[in-house]
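Friendly challenge for the regulars: who can give me the structure tokens for this chain first? No prize, just bragging rights.
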Amino acid sequence: MDAIAEAGIDNFNVDVIYGGAGESLEDWSATIDSVITLGAPHVSAYGLTVENGTALAEQPDRHPDDDDQADKYDLADDALSASGRLNYEISNWALPGRECRHNAVYWSGGDYAGFGSAAHAHRDGRRSWNVRTPDRYIEFIESGESAESSHESLDNRTRRLERLQLQLRTRDGVPASALAHSDVEELSELVQPRGERLVLTRAGRLLANEVSLRLRA
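First reply, four minutes later:
Bragging rights claimed.
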């Protein structure tokens, strides 16, 4: 990070993860303070998730606690917002004008290319992904072959629903028609109207999956 500052690079992102075993609220607060002090114009903060088949999955006593993660999310949101970095997607904060443009393509359901091992790509409803390991990827590329591992074709309804699920995560939210009126009333603590759109409240950001289940394409 010091090298970035010394090089005069003023537009960069810092990724941080919270919820690791043994991490206190004070530890996390110190992490966020250091990111702000560093001057990062864009910050991505993700709660630790446990993937099946990993060593961590076999150690339940080290798994993150939901309430602890919620407290750490709120702490990060308070501190980053107070520093001028506004939340524009559940896990992303940025100074005005410093939002991540390539992420915006994903969240809007746009097309993108994927280069490198395990990279994903999407074009016109066809989603593909490359082989997972760098050595195999290099082998395919050097031999002039495609490094694509597999792909899937998405029908129009699936594409619309995925687009809504991703848009819901952003500060622009989804069209009001994406949720039934009865669901909006039932989920009033999680979503709120903003003009002709519905956006997540801060409590809703923590329970976005619950809201996503009610979306209608």
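The longest strand covers residues 13-18. The mean pLDDT is 96. Your move, everyone else.
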